[in-house]
Amino acid sequence: MEEKIEQNGDSEIIAHKENLVSVMQEESALLDKILEQQTLLHNCVRDKDWDALNRNVDNLQTLSDQFVELEEKRTALSANIDMASDVEISPVLSEVRGKLQKSKVENKVLNEYIATTRKFLQGVFDSVVPQRRNVLYSSKGQIVKPELSSVVLNQMI
């Protein structure tokens, strides 16, 4: 009788681990799609294709939402399992972590590209259209920041 209970417990643990591995494999496949979207997103920014950028941001958001759902499942399933030392789970865990790290690097590269481009363009606009540095006051005595009235360019930046 005790043997039967022990076998049921073992089969539950095995099924639990199989379910966990399945969820992590789904995460891995989803991360492949996310990495692909990040590459497309970077290309859209570089090529200044704003319509495609909006579509890719929407797609990336959908994929991210799906990943969050899978991550919640994985967290619930792995509550009582030492994933790092489990022979069946550890390789899948390493794969998912590697892809997450790659995604993080892709995000950092894109953010640095955008920040650098923004600084460059701000420098160009400051040179071409110098702002008035005088302090302006409204009729009520409050400081008013001068706003750029208009700029016309005959070239695409």
Description:
The protein is mainly α and 157 residues long. Helix content is 72%, strand content 3%. It has helices at 2-47, 50-77, 90-128, and strands at 136-137, 143-144. Strands 1-2 form a two-stranded antiparallel ribbon. β1 and β2 (143-144) form a beta hairpin. α1 runs antiparallel to α2 (50-77) and α1 (2-47) packs parallel to α3 (90-128). The longest helix is centred in the first third of the chain and has 46 residues, at 2-47.
Largest sheet properties: 2 strands, antiparallel
Number of strands: 2
Q: Strand order, biggest sheet?
A: 1-2
Q: Which structural category fits the helices and strands?
A: mainly alpha
Describe the secondary-structure layout.
Layout lengths: L1 H46 L2 H28 L12 H39 L7 E2 L5 E2 L13
Helix pairs in contact: 1-2, 1-3
Keywords: Coiled coil
InterPro entries: FlgN-like_sf (IPR036679)
Protein name: Flagellar protein FlgN
Task: Provide a brief overview of the structure.
The protein is an all-alpha fold and 157 residues long.
Task: Name its key features.
single chain, 157 residues, mainly alpha, two-stranded antiparallel sheet, 3 helices, elongated
